[in-house]
Design goal:
The complex is a heterodimer. By secondary structure, chain A is α+β, with helices and mostly antiparallel strands. Chain A has seven helices and five strands, in the order H-H-H-H-E-H-H-E-E-E-E-H. By secondary structure, chain B is α/β, with parallel strands linked by helices. The chains are: A alpha+beta, B alpha/beta.
Chain lengths: ~160, ~525
């Protein structure tokens, strides 16, 4: 589990200022904010726009284009299951359904107690040790029923 | 005497427990009071044997694998006594799966410490750049052209011609961009080389900078690859410290520096113009071509944009190997291709080999069929936009033109194996759905076509007007193929049409298909 800072406009402004000198800084800043706060808080969008001399709509457009950026915090643990072809070929569909059933939520959602966010990911590049997953940044391959059960149990703790 | 043990730090090895194995070796050695040096390398690419552990001996490195935590103590015993062990695989280079390969690009991967510039140099690293620095731009470009190297990202455009175009375009600033947005399922060669031999990518990009007169480069790595991001950043810092990046590289008058940028989960950013938009800090919307990136690329400046594997092939070529490289291969596909065997395959991993090997040899012979032990029914070659091939086409040689002639593509060299439990209409639906999720939305055939495609395949699977709806799919695929702005919409018809053509029996009401199978 990763611990994030609560949103704070001064801290947000500092993070933005650290990167404004870079060419094409928008994605870099969005990543840095999400790394600090766990998501990109709405008030940060006009701040980025003003720092980079862009319109608020442009920054909002970038923020919403990419799957990675969150507009609200994820659950305490994030379990990403690879749903691409190599993992499908190795039995990933059944394992994803099993994780969904155990957590009682669909892929792309968070448990009501906000403990676990379950997400699909399209390829971790672990296709020769498929099916694979990532729990809070830790990669796991050769998943089977026992391993997916252990991952789900770990995420729930 | 200290024992030197090599354990991979490749994400694929870590995913199956390599970090724990390294820790157990340290503990086990400490308990015995043994001096042990554990070197964390990249992966050799024999993933079914990971975690694989190697030990240096007088005869060469001896491998053991796949090693579980409980095996560590006995493996250590066998290493010390040079005794037999059930997991002992012998001298690594003599393992047949590795011995059959022609490792030019991946020569050092799994061998060297990817964090060590000294190790890279001790294994012929930077010989290509050193020679390039003594040559004129024209000679470097002639070497790249003579090697016959074509873009390894999938499009197969001759690299020498691309570089020459940038070299001949005058501008106050030019860029080198490395496309490390390896989003295709079934491919992991870019990840492996960035994690296992990052300096070869840096060297290749630096040579490109010298050849075309660019002083700044970017490596755009997908966010799904945190280990590769870390490895590249560490290598860039080491290269800078060693004088191989920055001003006056390698003691020459040239300056070149690199920066890693991380993507944000958009598959379409693997398309080169979308990647450039993303690097500029915008939505990853595809640009219409022309202008070509070689004329107006990153920030409107002439830009060499190549795949990781294209850059990684360059140092060998510039170290005097242009002819040797071109001597491998068939037809217009020269050199070697790092092929990736994935999915439901017994011996999955990275197999670098000269072009010309057949698909059947790769799947049955090298890959050993499926790990479930069931018959191979289909293989998808070239990622989510690649065609599904049935056994009947297993005589196709691995070659850009041969695959194109059979309505397929080799793409980035990934092969995903499926057994006979696969439902091909479901795979065709996935291709449309994936395109719908990942479409950048700029052009209509891709944005709307993919959604309509998924809906229509749903109708076919439900048994609604099957013949008519198949005609709709065929028509839709034709529109997408010829009307889309880039390869996402343009190539999604490959998996769909190949599934329909070769596995027609899977398209119809699911209930009927189940009855037929019984």
């Amino acid at each position: 589990m990763t611990v994030y800072e609560p949103w704070n406009a001064t801290r947000g402004a500092e993070i933005i200022a650290e990167h404004t000198h870079l060419e094409g800084a928008t994605l870099v800043i969005l990543h840095a904010l999400q790394e600090a706060f766990g998501y990109v808080p709405e008030p940060a969008i006009p701040m980025i726009a003003s720092a980079l001399n862009l319109s608020r709509a442009e920054v909002h457009g970038v923020f919403t284009f990419y799957h990675d950026f969150r507009h609200k915090p994820a659950g305490r643990h994030v379990l990403k299951l690879c749903r691409a072809e190599a993992c499908q070929a190795a039995g990933g569909d059944a394992l994803a359904a099993r994780a969904e059933a155990q957590l009682g939520i669909a892929l792309g959602t968070t448990t009501p107690d906000e403990r676990v966010t379950l997400e699909p990911i399209y390829c971790l590049g672990l296709c020769a040790t498929a099916p694979s997953a990532m729990l809070d940044g830790r990669v796991v391959g050769r998943l089977d029923e026992a391993r997916i059960d252990a991952l789900v149990a770990e995420a729930r703790r | 005497m200290s024992l030197r043990i090599f354990i991979s730090r490749d994400a694929g090895a870590i995913a199956v427990g390599a970090d724990g194995i390294a820790w157990h070796f340290e503990q086990s050695a400490a308990r015995r009071g043994l001096a042990v040096e554990i070197v964390r390398t990249g992966s050799r690419g024999l993933y079914w044997l990971e975690p694989m552990v190697e030990v240096a001996t007088a005869k060469g490195r001896v491998a053991f694998g796949p090693v579980a935590d409980a095996d560590v103590a006995s493996v250590l015993d066998a290493m010390l006594a040079e005794a037999p062990h059930p997991l002992r695989l012998g001298i690594v280079e003599d393992i047949p799966w590795l011995k059959r390969q022609t490792r030019l690009t991946f020569a050092r991967c799994g061998v060297v410490d990817p964090r060590s510039l000294e190790d890279y140099r001790a294994h012929d690293g930077y010989k290509g750049l050193e020679r390039a620095l003594t040559l004129t731009s024209e000679v470097i470009l002639a070497d790249v052209t003579a090697s016959g190297l074509r873009g390894r990202g999938g499009a197969g455009f001759p690299t020498g011609i691309k570089w020459k175009t940038v070299a001949q375009t005058s501008a106050d600033r030019k860029y080198i961009v490395c496309n490390a947005d390896e989003g295709d399922s079934g491919t992991f060669a870019d990840r492996m080389i960035m994690e296992g031999d990052p300096f070869v990518v840096i060297e290749g990009m630096t040579i490109a900078g010298v050849a075309v007169g660019a002083s700044k480069g970017y490596i755009y790595i997908r966010s799904e690859y945190p280990h590769a991001v870390e490895a590249m950043n560490a290598a860039i810092a080491a290269a800078r410290r060693g004088g191989y990046l920055g001003t006056g590289i390698g003691g020459s008058a040239h300056s070149f520096d690199l920066e890693v940028r991380v993507g944000a989960g958009a598959y379409v950013c693997g398309e080169e113009t979308s990647l450039l938009e993303s690097l500029e800090g915008r939505r990853g919307i595809v640009r219409a071509k022309p202008p070509l990136p070689a004329h107006k690329g990153l920030f409107g400046k002439p830009t060499v944009i190549n795949n990781v594997l294209s850059f990684a092939a360059i140092p060998f070529i510039l170290a005097g190997g242009a002819k040797a490289y071109a001597d491998f291969g068939i037809g217009r596909s020269r050199g070697t291709m790092p092929i990736q065997l994935a999915g439901n395959v017994r011996y999955g991993g990275l197999f670098e080999v000269a072009f010309g090997i057949t698909l059947g040899e790769l799947v049955d012979d090298v890959g050993g069929g499926t790990f479930t032990g069931r018959p191979v029914r289909a293989v998808q070659v070239g990622g989510p936009l690649g065609a599904y091939f049935p056994r009947a086409l297993f005589d196709t040689p691995f070659d850009y033109e041969a695959f194109a002639a059979r309505d397929g593509l080799i793409g980035h060299g990934g092969i995903v194996v499926f057994d006979d439990s696969v439902d091909m209409s479901k795979q065709a639906r996935f291709a449309m759905q994936f395109c719908a999720i990942e479409s950048c939305g700029k052009c209509t055939p891709c944005r709307i076509g993919s959604t309509r495609g998924a809906e229509t395949i749903d109708k076919i699977r439900a048994g609604e007007h099957v013949t008519e709806n198949i005609a709709v799919i065929e028509d839709l695929c034709n529109t997408m193929k010829f009307g889309s702005l880039c390869a996402l919409g343009g190539f999604t018809p490959y998996p769909v049409m190949s599934a329909l053509k070769h596995f027609r029996e899977d398209f119809g009401p699911a209930a009927t298909r189940l009855q037929a199978a019984e």
